[in-house]
Amino acid sequence: MNKMEAQKSNLSELKAMFDKDETFAFRDFCCKKDPTIEFCIVFVEGMADKNSIHDQIIKPVADSDLSDDLDINQMINTLSKEVISAANVYQKNKLEDIIQDLLSGHTALFVNDFDKAIIIDTVDFVERAVSEPDSEKTVSGPREGFTENISTNIVLLRRKLKTANLKLRFREIGTETRTKICICFIDNIVDKKLVEEVEQRLDKINMDGILDVGYIQELIKDTPTTPFKTVGDTERPDVMAGKLLEGRIAIFCDGTPIAITVPFIFVEYFNASEDYYNNFYFATFNRIIRWFSFFLASSVPAIYIALITFHQEMVPTQLLLSISSSRQNVPFPTIVEAVLMLFVFELLRETSVRIPSVIGQTISIVGALVIGQAAVEAKLVSAPMIIVAALTGITSYAIPKMQGELILTRLVFLLAASFIGLYGYLFGVIGMFIHLASLRSFGIPYMINIASLKPADAKDVVVRAPWQKMKTRPKLVAQQNVQRAADKTGTGDEVEKK
Predict the structure, then answer these.
(1) 97 and 217 share a domain?
(2) Is the pLDDT of residue 167 over 70?
(3) Measured between alpha carbons, how far is 35 from 38 in angstroms, rounded to an integer?
(4) Is 435 in the same domain as 287?
(5) Is 302 domain-assigned?
(6) What is the 3-state secondary structure (H, E, C) of 411-445?
(7) Does residue 19 belong to any structural domain of this protein?
(8) What is the pLDDT of residue 496?
């Protein structure tokens, strides 16, 4: 097959494939100076900017001084370099690549049945404006969040990291969706072995469609069966920039406002972007509240069941009498009460999330009050159990990224305590810590900061130390350039000793 037949095949196949697709536009025109030179542009309506197509392609090409005497390669190069005024212009001859560019919003220009198509960037998507993400609101700090456009997200990140060491590596995954993803890291900080590991895991993904980073999170995590995250996520550019400065790697996925970071360790559940913008005393206090909330949200129902069912002697007499009187005429055992109320609370939470936000909060509050009061008056549950369920639910909101993990952990502790009391609860806690200690996130121990005995490793766990004391990056994450800043009178050696 010669070049001319190949190009005819390309254009005819395009017309055949999208013959009944009215969004695909085929526009034939010719050169005014030499009508024998024929052109055909192809674009997808709604994805390409028609004004750009007219001003940057059709008008200059039709008015050009091309001559049929020119070699076809010279003609293509002249159009690409001198005539077409668009910012990004390149040439392709594979039909699959041309289709992919068309479906990405670009415009293809065919000349005289030549085997190459000139691809012009005319992308014009309707996209959401940059705004503060609802899932990571903050009182102090930037008010911008990622959008569904990967190019916009990269621009937001570059505004935070104005360095030539910020490296971007693009690739496509998903045999049908051909989803564009971007791997970001700071070259003089990140561990090169970590970059290789991330690329290898992404290359192993073999699916027909990747629609969100949630697919990638599940496919590249170290232990797929664990309920705990080993791959982090965020919608905030400032959080992402902070992670990269610690030596982590970010992965953007086109079509989603959420970006993921690796590695992810357990203490990151309790960190918030505001911790680094507020006074370190106040930030430390807030972190203590989050850690205490984790204990309450996971353990309060189990401890209540254990004390009421197995260890009444540990409860003050007056309190025990009060609880006993409130449980009179309640037909269900305490464990059934707890499971029922926790299920109702999670049901109200899920309902408030799925319905319109205008009435979501109202329904959750009114539903909890009405159902709780009615259940107590009907003697289906006791009043103390309502308090336990409410305390458990409220404290779980202090760690919003741990909702799923808390539900499962709470249930395991509750069932263990219902069999052998506090011993069962303690066995559940020990089992959870053994499981957490066995996890790895891209080779990094999941509990590294908690298990470490070095004071330097505890500066950003429960206590958020002053910036003057946090002059080194996490050593196991950032293998090179560990030092954040040096003293004015010294070098990195003095920082390391601290």
Answers:
(1) no
(2) yes
(3) 7
(4) yes
(5) yes
(6) HHHHHHHHHHCHHHHHHHHHHHHHHHHHCEECCEE
(7) yes
(8) 42
Query: Whole domain around residue 403: which residue ranges?
Result: 280-441
In this predicted structure, the answer to whether residue 188 has a pLDDT above a threshold of 90 is: no
Residues 433 and 287 in one domain: yes
56-70, 140-154, 394-408: range with lowest mean pLDDT = 56-70
Query: On the CB side of 90, how many CA atoms lie within 13 Å of its CA?
Result: 9
Count of structural domains, the chain: 3
Kindly list the distances between the CA atom of residue 20 and the CA atoms of 8, 178, 285, 430, in Å, as whole numbers in the listed order. 19, 23, 63, 63
> Residues 6 or more apart from 370 whose CB is under 8 A from it?
none
- Which of these three, 233, 264, 295, is where a domain ends? 264
Q: End of a domain among 120, 155, 179?
A: 120
Inter-residue contact 305 to 417 (CB < 8 Å): yes
97 and 17 housed in the same domain: yes
Judge whether 228 and 439 are in contact, CB under 8 Å: yes
pLDDT given at position 4: 42
Identify the residue whose tokens are 């011993």. 423
Report the candidate in 261, 270, 231, 259 with the shortest Cα–Cα distance to residue 243: 261
Cβ(181)–Cβ(173) below 8 Å = yes
Terminal-to-terminal C-alpha distance of the chain? 72
**Cα distance between residue 189 and residue 234, in whole Å:** 21
- CA gap 189, 333 in Å, rounded: 57
Instruction: State which amino acid sits at residue 87.
Output: A
CA 157 to chain centre: 14
Closest to 369 in 3D by CA, of 394, 400, 390: 390
Is residue 474 in a domain? Answer: no
Half-sphere exposure in the Cβ direction for 181 (13 Å, CA): 29
Q: Do 407 and 298 share a structural domain?
A: yes
Say whether both 237 and 286 belong to one domain: no
Q: Other C-beta atoms within 10 Å of 457: how many?
A: 17
What are the CA-CA distances from residue 165 to residues 162, 184, 188, 341, 469 (Å)? 9, 10, 6, 53, 25
Which phi and psi angles does 483 have, rounded to 5°?
Answer: -80, 125
pLDDT digits (tens, 9 = 90+) for 392-407: 988 988 888 888 899 9
- Provide the CA 288 distance to its chain's centre, in angstroms: 26
